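Ops channel
N.P.: pipeline sanity check, posting one input/output pair.
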């Protein structure tokens, strides 16, 4: 291992257990939920997809957040790409070998061989196209498909979300022999709300799982590399555990913290966090996040960082003392919705709305020391 950035934790057992769960319940997807930046996509990419491949399934990945405006098209596009890959091997040689010979020149004359009988074109309606693509792809690949839909909660934000869920549900059920599915999302609440307005509780459709965060294995690797870089110095596992919890179990962030502590050559993780939060680059980044917000939204952000229930009476009083105009419940609700859409706050499980990045919350608190009570 050469740098902190090379540190990786692989979770083959977790992947195997997920695949076993999927196998045991044909037609029922797994939906794994966890807060942002804890490693969901990384797991799909590095653990689940390889495990699916070695289990003779064809993994297909689609990010619904990237194509928020047309999620079903995004899924279809991913399936079409996979179909291309199966039909046309990626290497140039494969491509040439598969290029059909259409015309043969013979002694100055040309002979038209004509097209091979073409398959019927895929339906254009995205719902039917999804169904047709699933059948065609699994037949071409000769194996079942594992459809991995990342950021599934973004369906909660599109007008057609309920209809898309209904389509997915119907196709996953009908094609259960050849189609398996895994969803990941950062907001169980967004999904649950959408499904309940569609008249069906989420758990009837998918098996909900809390995606486990990384543990000591990751922290130990950080500590080992630190000891290698700084002979004679060591980071205590207990300190690392405490700080990892403090940053919301986000491995990328934790790695950055340990890198900055390492650059300074100190071993006091808590002091390292304090300095990291006030580092110019961090502050500039957070400033950029807040830049598009109006004064009222910024004030709402601060009361959420203080851990106040955002709709409570006291919160409204507190907001009245902050910039941004007279607070009302409706205004607070609208501001929270905008903050949620901007990815700054989230609400996981039964917990209250919170700032998504715990270090950003610490920064907001430092910036706006609570008024004397
Ligand atoms: N198993 C792992 N080993 C090492 N680093 C990891 C691991 N999992 C995640 N990370 C680090 O954490 C970062 C965030 O992971 P990832 O993008 O998978 O999170 P996510 O939960 O999908 O986030 P989001 O909700 O924003 O999509 C990665 O860029 C990577 O650096
Ligand atoms: Mg992700």
């Amino acid at each position: 291992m050469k740098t902190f950035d090379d540190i990786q934790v692989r979770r083959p057992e977790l992947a195997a257990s997920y695949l076993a769960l999927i196998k045991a319940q044909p037609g029922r997807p797994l939906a794994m939920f966890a807060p942002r930046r804890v490693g969901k996509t990384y797991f799909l990419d590095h653990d689940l997809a390889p495990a699916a491949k070695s289990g003779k399934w064809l993994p297909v990945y689609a990010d619904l957040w990237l194509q928020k405006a047309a999620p079903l098209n995004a899924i279809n596009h991913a399936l079409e790409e996979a179909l291309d890959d199966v039909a046309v091997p990626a290497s140039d040689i494969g491509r040439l070998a598969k290029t059909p010979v259409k015309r043969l020149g013979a002694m100055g004359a040309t002979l038209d061989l004509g097209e091979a009988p073409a398959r019927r074109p895929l339906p254009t309606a995205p719902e039917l196209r999804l169904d047709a693509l699933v059948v065609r792809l699994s037949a071409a690949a000769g194996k079942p498909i594992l459809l991995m839909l990342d950021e599934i909660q973004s369906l909660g934000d599109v007008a057609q979300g309920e209809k898309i869920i209904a389509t997915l549900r119907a196709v996953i059920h009908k094609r259960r022999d050849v189609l398996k599915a895994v969803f990941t999302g950062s907001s169980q609440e967004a999904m649950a709300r959408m499904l309940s307005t569609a008249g069906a509780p989420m758990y009837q459709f998918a098996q909900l799982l809390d995606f486990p965060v990384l543990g000591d294995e990751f922290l130990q690797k950080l500590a080992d590399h630190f000891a290698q870089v700084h002979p004679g110095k060591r980071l205590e596992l207990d300190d690392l555990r405490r700080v990892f919890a403090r940053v919301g179990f986000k491995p990328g962030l934790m790695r950055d913290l340990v890198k900055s502590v390492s650059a300074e050559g100190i071993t006091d993780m808590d002091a390292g966090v304090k300095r990291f939060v006030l580092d110019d680059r961090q502050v500039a980044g957070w400033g950029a996040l807040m830049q598009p917000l109006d004064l009222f939204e910024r004030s709402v952000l601060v009361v959420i960082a203080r851990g106040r229930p955002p709709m409570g009476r006291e919160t409204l009083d507190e907001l009245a003392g902050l910039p941004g105009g007279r607070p009302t419940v409706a205004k607070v609700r609208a501001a929270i919705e905008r903050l949620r859409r901007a990815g700054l706050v989230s609400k996981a499980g039964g917990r209250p709305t919170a700032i998504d990045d715990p270090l950003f919350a610490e920064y907001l608190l430092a910036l706006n020391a609570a008024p004397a009570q």
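N.P.: looks fine end to end. DSSP finds 17 helices and nine strands in the chain.
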